[in-house]
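Hi R.,

Here are the chain sequences for the assembly we discussed:
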Amino acid sequence: MLRVVLAVLRKDLGLFWRSPAVVAVTLLPPVILLFTLLMESAAVGSLPVALVSQGKTAASRQVTDVLATYPGFRAQRLDPAAAARAYDRLDVAGILTVPADVGQGPAHGQSPAVTLTVRNFNADFTNDLLRDLPDALGHVALPRSAGVAVAERDLQPKDADFLGFQMVAVLVLLLLQAGIVNAGMAAVHEWQSGTVKELLLAPAPALALIVGKVLAGVVAADVVGIVLGGLSLAAGFFGHPSPGALMLSFLVMTLLAAVGSGIGVGMASGMRSFERLGPASMLVSFYLFFLAGGIAAVAYLPAWLRALAGAIPNFYGMDALRGLLLYGAAPHLGQDVLVLALWLVVVLGGGPWLLRRSLSR
Amino acid sequence: MLRATIAVLRRELWSGAARPLGTLLAVMVPLNFLILMALFALSGGRANVALVLQDRGPYAQRFVQALTASDTFALHPVATAKQALALVRGQDDVAMIVVPPGFSRQIAAGRPARVGMTLDNLNHDFAEDARRGLSLAVADFERRYAPAAQPVAWSVRLAYPRTVGFLPFLALSILTAALLIGGLLQGGLGMAREWEAGTIRELMLSPAGALPVLLGKLSATFALALVGGLFALSGALLLGVPIGGVLPSAGVLLAVLLVFVSIGLALGALLRSERLVLPLSFAVGLPLFFLSGPFGPMEWSSPGVLLLARLFPIYYANGLLQRTFFGYWPLAVPVGLAVAVLLLWTVAALAAGGLSYRRATAPRGGRW
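And here is the predicted structure of the full complex:
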């Protein structure tokens, strides 16, 4: 059986490296996603605002300085006329006006207010600015009486970098897509070249053929996964995971690639043509990806989508890889590996059945 | 010329009907894109937060109102902190907020009160949203019930009477991108198929010139793209996009679709391969969606990204659709210029398609 597996593996790997179309379909979705994420990270950055200070008191200067250096928005100090022009030209999202006698008045709550004039095109960035303003003013060191203090406890030792967090998502999509496409294309090749009849007549067990094809998908996926993971690591997106975490990450990547490859072989048995499998594989990997939380975290999803994500293999791969590569610990690693292994058993078990059914037609 | 145009149109539609599955799949691509992007949009809304209310006093209730008004959290009550922590650890919630016993008593007495937040700080961007959301709720609460705790008062003036929600705003940009993908796909496949199937020779031998062929193709692929666009529009309306005037909305949607189908025709004539048109239409759709200004005006991105956005028609098309559906103009360029750019793209695309067709049908050295 091992000989058969190795022969299939060697043949299918050669097929992958020789076919530019297969390489293109493998790499296209993650490349698109990567480009998209770079776009998104530019879009979700801090918003530009004009900062107009009308006072020269110490309190006014202090408030202005705090707002000017607050990282939540990009404040430009402008005079009122220049601020109005910038606002009209859409150079800024809003105007922050610090009044002359800020922080003074009959009672603090009724004192002249810092005013934010905002172009409320949508609730998302409007809320961003609304959240930022009181947060920024909380840094002003003026005398204040007792209020509500927040005691925060974080589950992770530090906030992961936004781009690093997303790179894990890209890696998962790449592994899934590479697995589905490569194993799928290798299987489809048997139909398109007519060699499927030879397979039918060969004495090799169907499981050996499936394992060989899945293994070819795994090797190809692991190679591109290691390249992307290595580049991300070198670029500092993942921080400094320990060697143990890296080895465990490789195990999870391999399991994920194997599940993807199994799905690919199953799809190929039903579709039997490159033209159908190429776009379908992209669609399936994107659906699996977004249904499992995509570039966000599942905790942000509505309950029905969270329940659905729990049934999708890449959710577990993403959870384990984010834990290992970003936070130094994956608390659900055992569960993640177990579910991925179960999925692998299901796709490997279903593969021969689908192949036989397809060949018998 | 009209007869030739209608003949090409009919042939193209019959050809689509002869491949029902392929046509249906291509028509459904914009809807698929809308669903995928809606899944993405669903994750960008309010953060699920477990609320453990251990004080039932009036100020605790008002603090919960402030949390809700912050428009950051989707709160749900949980009986104990232990249960709430299990939800956060199990990735069912982003955070838990605990309002401890005696909170109202402390506020009423003018003494410091505390609230606790346990946060799954998965990444800096998400975590800061939650932190600032809580900060806003605290400031809002203090402003009303403990004003002395706020040394600097603040107020907000909104430019427009209504703030469009996150999901409808994003859904309109998704619709624009879905129209783009549908237009590229239908226009591109319609044109490339002639080369791939070899039927371009029949067209070459026919007495019809390039213009009727191009117009016939444009009409047929536009009709197919329109079917897909209507599916996507229905999805966008379900996601909360408001309809302004029916006629202006329909007019702008049709005009935008015409631009994209024209570009699709040019793409198909240049690539001459269905295999290339199909993934490319999808591949360019996603990045261009992010250049359409899906989160807010591209003018607030970096100058390089803005420059890139202005090179593509989707930036102007999305601006026009936002003006029609939301009632404001979100671009720094004037409306007239945006319309002119789209017109230019359409003319240039049709010219490129026509040129490519002419070159393909021009005799070379006495032979086709």
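The beta strands of chain B are 47-53, 73-77, 95-99, 113-119, 154-158. The longest strand of chain B covers residues 47-53.

Let me know if anything looks off.

Best,
T.
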